[in-house]
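Following up on my earlier message about pyridoxal-5'-phosphate. Here are the inputs again, as you asked, copied directly from the submission form:
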Amino acid sequence: MHISENLTGLKSTLPPGVTLVAVSKTKPQELIMEAYATGHRDFGENYVQELADKHEQLPKDIHWHFIGHLQSNKVKYIASFVHLVHGVDSLKLLKEIDKQAAKQKRVIPCLLQVYIASEESKFGFDVAEVQELVASGVLQQLPNISVAGLMGMASNSEDKQLVKAEFGKLAALFQQLGQLSVTGMEMKYLSCGMSGDYRLALEAGSNMLRIGSTIFGERQYGAGK
Ligand SMILES: *Cc1c(COP(=O)(O)O)cnc(C)c1O
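Thanks, got it. Here's what our run produced:
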């Protein structure tokens, strides 16, 4: 794999203001370092243990994004260093991140994961639940987290209209919440778009892409999406 070429080539096509999170899950440190050598610093992982190990062993100026499904009892392993938690899908998890961040005397930026796909197995809040959460006033009571945007995954489908509509739904919510003034929330990042659908995500207004296989090649060992 020509990782540095893949990465720099991809980045040269992105509009300004778009952050590319290079998804390095299952990939060994040597490959991450190839990407790092190009100056890239944002990497995404979705297994807590793997992330904690890589954080320990790799350069400390990497911004580690947690993009997977985070279990409350594992927040403590990444709370000291995680740059952005993308997949927050319950109030319980938000409260636990707040608690662990307080122990570390820091504020952890989080994205609320919104369920936009028509598929069954995806995690996340639905649109109404996000609106309720924001309106409930609970965010003001969690000083050690900040809600910095939204994250979503579209259906894994060839149907472009479907995927476009799903990203559109997420972008509309992002716009709507961006109009509100709520302590503890600032809609900065719209995290959507993966290798197969990032162009559609950019069209919909994404400003944070999570891309793995286009940069690092296909994942070898049963790592799912
Ligand atoms: C693995 C993964 C990606 C990257 O997927 P690719 O298709 O390899 O680009 C993006 N987002 C999440 C949440 C993932 O788990």
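One observation from looking it over: The chain has a mean pLDDT of 95. Hope that helps, and feel free to reply on this thread.
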